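Subgroup meeting minutes
Present: P.N., E.W., G.H.
Scribe: E.W.

1. P.N. recapped why we're keeping a running log of single-chain structure predictions: easier to compare across weeks, and new members can see raw inputs and outputs side by side.
2. G.H. added today's entry (417 aa).
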Amino acid sequence: MLPGQGPAAVVPRRWRDTWEHRLPRAQTPAPAGGLLDHGAASLLTVRFPPPAHRPVRMRFPFVARVLATLALAWAAAAACVALHTPLPWMIGPLLATSLVSIAGGPTESWGPLRNAGQWTIGAALGLYFTPEVVALIGGLWWAIVLGIVWALLLGWLFGAWLYRVHAPRMHGVPAPMLRATSYFAGAIGAASEMTLLSERENARTDLVAASHSLRLLIVTVTIPFALQWSGLHGLDILPPTLRVVSWPGLALLALMTGVGAVVMDRLGRANPWFMGAMLVSMGLTMAGLGLSAVPQGLVNAAQLVIGVSLGVRFRREFLHTAPRWLASVAVGTLGLMGVCALFAGALAWATGLPWVTLLLGTSPGGITEMAITAKVLQLGVPVVTAFQVCRLIAVLMLVDPLYRRIYPGDEHQALKV
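Output recorded in log:
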């Protein structure tokens, strides 16, 4: 067990996604004037089953908090629809719940609802992968590989920049710990997986989780607004037959994609409810089995619960988690989006695909959020999804071995701290 970690952080597999709890994490004391803000709780979310003796947080029972949060999210989504904002069913709930959460409101996200939302979105996106689209994407393998290399390089450079900026100020954090924290905070990958990997390397998981949460918020909000105001559109391919909802076919599609999601979850894969459902739906579409489209109302509901699950991450203590660190992450995220836009332009010139499609495919956002953006704004869903999925898999496989190769001495030094 690493320093500063309690036994409660070890969670049995069968308890996953049943209860959410944020653990306080002891940190290394900071010197006078330091920037560590160690009074803040860790943003690493660990899920536990809800035993009867567990005290209810604040004054509201769990179910009441969930229902109140969903009502708030629906009102925010309806307001965004009336205002014609981009992605109203995701951005509205995301902004509303994050603001109320930071203000100390009793917001709550229920894990099974979030899983159902990812399941729905995954099943809907898989319907885009017709044989013709798969052939098109197959010819782009070299561009996808370049996108993976770009993501790994950009994440390393971002992490190195964070270390260079904060090393002179954060004297209370040993150099190996700060280097690991900066590296995994800068990596362009799934937030939960990057936090768990950073924990193995004795990094400050609160800063890693906070960095990814803030970056995801900035990218998810900024890019859709920028694309809507610019009037840019990409390429979407969806056969007309898959626009028709067949209730028997939809039931069969739900059953088969649900089985795929459960299997991926049991195997411990990243984003299992999204990836498992999408892979099954993709396989059916590639085989020419168009069972049914996914109703738009169901897609909207899925975006709402996903927006809620992102918004509740931002608790009041989030603002006290090293504010200068979060400020540098925000500035760095804007820089990442800028250089990714240039990289997407180079790929667009080389491939002949729309720039805006490749922008979403290479942006430093989450796979679910960028795929939803592509779907709602009709910006080339299959290409965006292919780039994001391949990048996610490669980053999860390579980011930790690369860290140990780049900083071979840090692992042993960190364990002595």
